[in-house]
Amino acid sequence: QKEVEQDPGPLSVPEGAIVSLNCTYSNSAFQYFMWYRQYSRKGPELLMYTYSSGNKEDGRFTAQVDKSSKYISLFIRDSQPSDSATYLCAMMTTDSWGKFQFGAGTQVVVTP
Amino acid sequence: GAVVSQHPSWVICKSGTSVKIECRSLDFQATTMFWYRQFPKQSLMLMATSNEGSKATYEQGVEKDKFLINHASLTLSTLTVTSAHPEDSSFYICSAKTGGHGMETQYFGPGTRLLVL
């Protein structure tokens, strides 16, 4: 079983819709939960991260962590065609700094 | 934000040859660099961690004699795939970490696509 599971998609939504992305994980030691966005032929760029449980909001993006269910989510409101990219979740324990466990990434397509 | 570059962006080589991939932090000094590999439809998998001036730490299952990592300066790390074979064809991506402990301190390069014929 993979430590981090993420549906690869593609996920196609119309412009203005809410994009809902999620990952599940098996390692209860994960404490840091990150979301990266990756455009084609580019490196991943950090969107936001959460430590432990809870919600975090940044503009149109909201990240949620439910440690009891080992489930994390990313919501993108008012989606734009420029949001079309692959979204990667990543996780890390506190004693393995920088050693991320990534999900496979979900390809998102926002159609005008 | 900080910039990490990789060179080359893609490379095609014959089976049995060695390929060197460079990872540079352009506007900051990287205390630590990480090398990942990604096969199609799969996750980025950490291969090794390197700190400037010391030997790299390899993840379980990664052959250190096949994937040579050199972190000779605070702005440059290299990954050499020795005696490459078709199964080594993959997307190799590095990340570089500045000082501090926030997630914002780690930056990824654009990746290098390797195709071994």
Could you explain the architecture of this structure?
- The complex is a heterodimer of chains A (112) and B (117).
- In chain A, 0% of the residues lie in helices and 54% in strands.
- Chain A is mostly beta strands.
- In chain A, strands 2, 4, 5, 9, 10 and 11 form a 6-stranded mixed beta sheet that branches.
- In chain A, strand 4 (32-38) and strand 5 form a beta hairpin.
- The mean pLDDT of chain A is 93.
- Chain B is mainly β and 117 residues long.
- Helices cover 0% and strands 52% of the residues of chain B.
- Chain B has no helices and 11 strands.
- Chain B has strands spanning 4-7, 10-13, 19-25, 32-38, 44-51, 57-58, 67-73, 76-81, 90-97, 106-108, 112-116.
- The radius of gyration of chain B is 13 Å and the shape is globular.
- Chain A binds chain B through residues 2, 4, 6, 8, 32, 34, 36, 41-46, 49, 88, 97-105, and chain B through 1, 4, 6, 9, 32, 34, 36, 41-46, 49, 93, 95, 97, 101, 103-104, 106-111.
User: What is the count of DSSP helices of chain A, taking H or I runs of 4+ residues?
Assistant: 0
Show unreliable segments of chain A.
none
The H/E string of chain B reads: EEEEEEEEEEE
What level of helicity do the residues of chain A show?
Answer: under 10%
Task: Give the SSE layout.
The complex is a heterodimer of chains A (112) and B (117).
Chain A lengths: L3 E3 L4 E4 L4 E7 L6 E7 L6 E7 L2 E5 L2 E6 L4 E6 L8 E8 L8 E2 L3 E6 L1
Chain B lengths: L3 E4 L2 E4 L5 E7 L6 E7 L5 E8 L5 E2 L8 E7 L2 E6 L8 E8 L8 E3 L3 E5 L1
Parallel strand pairs in B: 2-11
Antiparallel strand pairs in B: 1-3, 3-8, 4-5, 4-9, 5-6, 7-8, 9-10, 9-11
Task: Please supply descriptive tags for the structure shown above.
heterodimer, A: 112 residues, mainly beta, 6-stranded mixed β-sheet, 5-stranded antiparallel β-sheet, 11 strands, 0% helix, B: 117 residues, 7-stranded mixed β-sheet, 4-stranded antiparallel β-sheet, 52% strand, globular
